[in-house]
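# step 3/5: fold
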Amino acid sequence: MTDRITVEGVYKIFGRSPESALAMLKSGETKEAVLQKTGQVVGLSDVSLSVPVGSIYMIMGLSGSGKSTLARCINRLIEPNAGRILIDGEEITGASEARLREIRRTRISMVFQHFGLLPNRTVLENAEFGLKLRGVPAAARRKKVMEVLEVVGLASWANHLPGTLSGGMRQRVGLARALATDADVLIMDEAFSALDPLIRSEMQDELLRLHRTFHKTILFITHDFQEALKLGSRVAIMADGMVMREGVPQDIVTKPGNDYVAAFTRDVNRAHLFDASSVMVESSPLRLDGRASGGRDAEGEPVFIVDDSMQVVGVVGPRQLPCLADGSAIQSLMSKDYETVCGTEKLSVVASLCHRDRPIAVVDEGGRYLGRVDPLQILSRIGAPAAASSQSRGAEA
């Protein structure tokens, strides 16, 4: 997968003499030392990361960690003091003002925490605002916006003012405005943090649904680790202007790497984080004609039976397997007493199926056999958190 956004060694210093603070940081001085000796505030310190095309990339951290500063550097609302930022390989840190305006109009859209809606404009007028700035003719932009409002469930509210909408509905207007521009990148800065918990959860589900529809690259800023785990395909955890840990959510939870990151992972509900593929044992099924589809599976385990398209049609228990060697037909030995789950199904669902010793087959989205669930692995995955590394860089932050 190619990268949509690339951040390379970015620094941001807030103060009148950033050069001296930058030199101190590059020589190994800390953020606190820079503040004490120069009075300047370190916003970002040597930040590097890559955001894959079509991903939801979460930048997570507490207040003052640098996450919002990084988001604003990426669209150059804030100018970095050093480093490079590229979008699809184009370096925007050196872009002219004219090119930068074009990038903001066509390549990057933002969704704000407090909606950023114009109170005296209708839902439709708010949603079409970006297209209007771009100079799109009225008929074309209204056609486009009504299509997007239909997708986010607000078409019937097109002529209402924002004040008549709930918080969740107003945030949907903000999403519609961003989506209507067809920008490649959406930057969402604490977009759901002002919402009530129930509405926030609904908006998270809505964002995942819209992401499946529009396949945008989303850079999502949050202070909520549970939100980062729910939404993110990759997560960067920041503190003191630095990236403390970066990776896929499951790896961050199982291998936090330092005490600071481990503190966020301690109370994670792992049953809602890990999926069936994480507890799957790759095993070889048998075809209906008795042909093997790979190497021999572990002894004492059931063997699933598949048809020519790798769809599961039955299972043969370990006690019946010796009969196959005697020439018995598979159809006379196999049972329908099994379960199937998609590899993306969360363990909270998979665990509920582990009853009456029924074997569980893992399949892909097309129903093709991938392997079987190991119940002992479920317990391992949702058990006690892994110990953090003894290294605790930034643990005091």
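# step 4/5: annotate
Residues 255 and 386 are 7 Å apart (CA to CA).
# step 5/5: archive (pending)
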